[in-house]
Amino acid sequence: MSEPDLHPDTVAVHAGREGLAELGVHALPIDLSSTNPLPDIERGGDSYEALTGGRRPPEGGSNVYGRLWNPTVARFEQALAALEGADEAVAFASGMAAVTAAVLALCAATDNRHVLGVRPLYGGTDSLLAGELLGVEHTFCGMDAVADEIRPDTGLVIMETPANPTLDLVDIAAVVAQAGDVPVLVDNTFATPVLQNPLAHGARLALHSATKYIGGHGDVIAGAIACDAETAIALRKVRTATGSVLHPLAGYLLHRGLATLPVRMRAQQENARVVAAFLRRHPAVSHVYYPDDDTTGILGTQLRGPGAMVSIGLRGGYDAAERFTSRLRIFTHAVSLGGVDSLVQHPAAISHRHVAPEARPGADIVRLSIGLEDAGDLVADLEHALG
Ligand SMILES: *Cc1c(COP(=O)(O)O)cnc(C)c1O
User: Which residues constitute the domain of residue 304?
Assistant: First the structure.
């Protein structure tokens, strides 16, 4: 199902489903095995050797142990890789486990123990680097300073676009050019593979918090990285060694979610356009952060649509944000994003609380994740809460 002539909508529905007819099933099979029979010691040993080395189980071998390989998760990974135009994808227990594995595999496990973080970044990523938990050094910089901040020992550049929560667009190819031969990881959570494919612009890794749009229903915590085969081996070695594996039931839910991802993304985006247009006209709103008004040329080339995240600045600052979030009825006041239902949260107080003050979003900003409800109902809810 990786035929390049198939439309991504078709790939989303069919990828990762090879061999189901031979198994006599139509729905994706769920393999919950924590351990697996070994055909004999020799082949068991060969399988263990391959899997702990980050490779696939050999033909006629065994999956050995659930921390090493799971076929249900592998099907999801194959489908995500097809959607990202990548050789492979590696799934993790969460988006932060995926970020951690990338830093460990490309920096901590090598001589290149410096990470360059291009701000703004998701609060968890920012504070993971700032906290220096992973035995690597870090520098933060803006998108135009990457070339200046690259060091001989830089092993990874981490960037995000559209960025959280201000929806800043960053030119992936421009950052890749500045990074030279240092691999660039793009957090593609907000855009999803439906709207943006970072590898096509020179990034080495495309990372997802699959908790968000890919799962899409607010019931899975997961992460994934799409990349080349060599990087996938390094990531799987770390995943096996540190145990940051995705549970097979979560892998199943994510794979099921992929089939509707393009449709959900387009419908949520249409709602977001309506909501953003309404908010731009509202006197209580000082600024709408929604990249449909992009002037950099990134929208329409790198990014195929503005997506379904909208942030707003409120004229009344923090107090207005407190009133607004508590008055909404359809929007749930909760962190996370990308699900079928609309959410609202205050980044400075919650998701970006631990980001250094100079990089933290303003106290007047609230972030909306636009869901699949009727756009008119969403606008009415916002109008009431702003009034
Ligand atoms: C949520 C999020 C993450 C972290 O993912 P988890 O699944 O919560 O660990 C990383 N990047 C972005 C942009 C996110 O929104």
Answer: 262-386
**Is 368 in the same domain as 267?**
yes
Closest by Cα among 350, 344, 346 to 385: 344
User: What SS3 class is residue 365?
Assistant: strand
Contact 183, 214 (CB under 8 A): no
Reported in sequence order, the residue ranges of the chain that DSSP labels E, i.e. its strands, are 88-92, 114-118, 137-141, 154-160, 184-187, 205-209, 223-227, 285-289, 309-314, 332-333, 343-345, 365-369
CATH number of the domain where residue 328 is located: 3.90.1150.10
User: What is the rounded average pLDDT of the residues 7-12?
Assistant: 97
Same domain, 290 and 271: yes
pLDDT of residue 108: 87
pTM over 0.85: yes
Pocket lining: 345 vs ligand 1, CB cutoff 6 Å: no
Domain count, the chain: 2
246 and 269 both lie in a single domain:
no
pLDDT in tens, 132-144: 999 999 999 999 9
Q: Say how far apart CA 157 and CA 283 lie, in whole Å.
A: 40
Q: What is the mean pLDDT of residues 372-380?
A: 98
Based on the fold, state whether residues 162 and 291 are members of the same structural domain: no
Look at residue 3 in the predicted model and tell me its pLDDT: 58
Active site residues: 67, 122, 187, 212
Locate 80 and state its tokens: 């995500």
Q: Are residues 245 and 360 in the same domain?
A: no
Q: What is the DSSP letter of 358?
A: G
For a ligand 1 pocket test, name from 94, 96, 309 the mutation site with the most ligand atoms within 8 angstroms of its C-beta: 96
